[in-house]
Amino acid sequence: MERTEQQLLTRIGEARFACVELQLYLDTHPEDLEARNDYNSYAAALDRLCAQYTEEYGPLQNFGNVPHDAGSWVYQAWPWQN
Q1: Residue 49, Cβ neighbours under 10 Å: how many?
Q2: Where would a tag sit more exposed on the chain, N or C end, judged by fewer CB atoms within 10 A?
């Protein structure tokens, strides 16, 4: 795996972790506007990072992200073909 691909996956993992933790916090503190703003910021960053990964390396999931391209991942190069 390329270094840049691994770095992008690391950033996606960090943003996803922050979203999960903030969502758990907001479950018990829904009035905390600063936490909600942080969550919205991380969620937007996560969307951008996932879109960037999909654009550069292919989908992260085999369903759910790009409905009009369902199944198209099969036609992309397999890891051992790169």
Answers
A1: 19
A2: C
Please give the pLDDT value at position 81. 78
* Distance in angstroms (rounded) separating the CA atoms of residues 41 and 51: 15
Residue 29 is encoded by which pair of tokens? 């503190």
Write the pLDDT tens digit of every residue in 7-24.
Answer: 999 999 999 999 999 999
The candidate with the shortest Cα–Cα distance to 23, out of 38, 12, 13, is 38
Regions in the chain scoring below 70 on pLDDT: 1, 62-75, 82
Note the helical H segments in 1-82. 3-28, 33-57
Q: How many angstroms separate the Cα of 14 from the Cα of each of 8, 30, 46, 50?
A: 10, 22, 9, 12
- Token pair of 54, please? 């999909």
